[in-house]
Design a protein that fits this description.
There is one protein chain. 34% of the residues are buried. Strands 11-10-9-12-8-1-6-7-13 form a nine-stranded mixed beta sheet, with helices on both faces. With 246 residues, it is an alpha/beta fold. Helix content is 27%, strand content 28%. β10 (151-158) and β11 form a beta hairpin. It has helices at 37-54, 69-78, 93-104, 126-134, 187-193, 232-241; strands spanning 2-6, 9-11, 19-20, 25-26, 33-35, 57-64, 82-87, 111-115, 138-148, 151-158, 161-168, 171-175, 198-201.
Amino acid sequence: MKILVCISKVPDTTSKINFTDNDTKFDENGVQYIVNPYDEWYALVRALELIESNGGTVTTITIGSSKDDPTIRKALAIGANDAVRIDAEPTDSFFVSKQIAEYAKNENYDIIMTGKETIDYNGAQVGAMISELVDMPFVSLATKLDVEGTKATLERDVQAGVEVVEVELPIVLSAAKGMAEQRIPNMRGIMAARSKPLKVVPPFEQKELTTVVKFELPNPKTGCKYIDPENMDELVELLHNESKVI
């Protein structure tokens, strides 16, 4: 089995977010980057579980510069066999999807996996776009994946229940919570990651389809107002006159 896992870097959730150039660019100064949790905890770990039981290889793919190599090495330390970095700055979801699809077209992957979304932009677009570009079936928000022969069985949460899907390989899927459990790289994995292949590929030609007009930070949180549990009249009055639905 041959699996491709899409890996992106995102700011650590404790990072302070600022913007530059009239609020059109993200300020990377002082920001600590991590592997996108949905890509790492669910897509990558489940891919590793599948090859551990069925045999095969797991390759990660990332769009970015050499600054992203430490993030890629983290994925290799967890257990991926090798990695590909397309040497380009990710501009929007379609650009990223196009780069991955163009590389994957001739590699004969059985499964292409993404996390359900990145925790910075929360777009949840890349998996579906890759699917269209490589002409493979797509299953979104999968919480379970089993493979037997050339058939994959997936589950995903739907309103008031669980949907079970069967599909012939090859497929593209986005992984959600429940797909796998987080793995912490051990020292042996960290040392091995240093020598695992990291292939750098020039970008495929693709014009930018979108531009950033402006980033805006959310309004600062207001303080909490505490009401004596015996003073229901005051609580009702505040809910009626001051509360806001967000």
